[in-house]
Records
---
Amino acid sequence: MDRLTGMKVFLAVADAASFSAAGRALGVSKAMVSKHVAHLEDSLGVRLLQRSTRCMRLTEAGSTYQERCRRILADIDETERVVSALRAEPRGLLRVAAPTSLGSYHLAPALSEYTALFPQVQVRLILNDSAEDPIKERTDVVVRIGRLASSNLIARRIAEVRLVTCAARVYLERFGVPQIPGDLARHNCLIYTGGQTPGEWRFRGPDGEYGLSVTGDFEANVGEAVRMVGLRGQGLVQFASYVVQRDIDVGRLCAVLPEHEANPLPIHAVYADRCLPASVRTFVEFLEARFLGGRGAVLEDRAFRSVQVQTGPLQGSRAEVMMAGEDAPQAYRQPAACL
């Protein structure tokens, strides 16, 4: 009998603790399962399973064999994926999860351009502000903003984003412009609860970066809701620059405390396996070329870049990338009327 098939059958029996359940899972008869296990035991010269009319358990040799079989079969699967990926073109369903604002402002246009380059890929973009687990949620790529917690997942830095504190001019005329972060204790701060540290805004001081607890009369777990309330003059907000830069450019919002702005936050593409399908590999490379350009660019509300996308076996296709606007944004835009 085939040894690899025997290993797979034995693992199914060990995991299910039942010959019948293993047979159902594998689509074979209980008798065939029993035959495979008996052949393995005869070949090895040891008892792998201790069986009785009431229960079944692994022997010491069976436990050792189970662990080794699982490792061997996983290595074989990975080897086959690696070899297949060398020839595979990007195709099939690509599932991408991202924070709502980042996905709307940047990833949706990027995905549209990516599928124009690779028309055999279908995209499913999942937007929410929770920390998605690629394995648990069955997504191929999760885009995350901020520092990453330690995990077994693989992360690739694709961009950075600035945090901007701002408010509508009518609010600042009524309550004054904060001069230092400590002044925020006397201000109404509108809180986005979908970030890593809700109710804590980031700033930079003489001793480095720090978090400052803020309070206010409005909070929401969707950034656009907080932004809209801020535009009405109800309070201050702190957002990624790509959310509010357009509002600042046209004078709807006024940036405050620019000299205390925190260091940019990293943006990572996170995935679960180093052996990537061609669609995931080329998409992550596309994001790097689009946003980083190899230099570590900071995402703003608008950007223009012509990028050469390296796609491994599929040699570089060219993509003209333009989000709203004509020129790449300056580091900070502040209408004089706001000051």
Note: Residues 19 and 25 are 10 Å apart (CA to CA).
---
Amino acid sequence: MTAATATLLAWQALLERDLRALLRSRSQLYSSILLPLIILAVLGSGVSEGLEPSLVRDRDYSSFLVPGIIAMTALFSATFSGASYYQDRDRGILKAMLAAPHPAGVILLGKSLAGVAVGCLQALLVLAIVALIPAIDLEWQYGVVPGLLLAFFAILLLNLLLGGLAHLLSARITTLTGFHLVMNLVLFPLFFFSGAFFPLDEVPVWLEVLGRVNPLSYAVDLMHVAIYSDTSSGYLGAPVDMPVLLAVAAAVLYLGVRRHSTG
């Protein structure tokens, strides 16, 4: 058996383990999918009907929220994935994993990629559910298939970025409680400044600057362009979003796994 085959088999085992854990933990599965949908229904309907937003297409705030709701699903998944590190560590499972005949970096990367796969599945499931809701109007300006591919690319890179960030934080924070506090402190401001709740081209300059230096903005922007908008006007667009997301996600994932491996 080659080293590459052994690595892939190890990663497959880690993925299967995380999928089984997700299916057993119904509260995690339901909360990570139902909560974004509830927010979409309540906030989207409330703003669309109560405030009549003029800065989004056809004053349809519910449809505008869809990319942000998908990003929220990825955020929840990354938090659960990071928390599983502490659970495995406290139960001695992580120590047993690292005793396997593979470098620590391979095991930790495989664990991170398993979390990414679970996050992608959950986000795609939310997208599928939302796309079937009659009240949601997604334009798919490039067509459904190309739009889905772009959306999947954004979801994949977003989960890689968030998974790397979870690794980076869990390598420095010793307790699960502290991890949750810091993840909330870091991720929720990033999420609010990502363009998920309001268009970044119509906000004050200081808020737009915060949005443009926020890596989550590029994932939300790419999903807006791919599935929601009927034009790329007012958005950065795929030629900007894709390379930025790819570079930042790769860098953060590398730093997170390296930090854990050497820590």
Note: The chain has a mean pLDDT of 81.
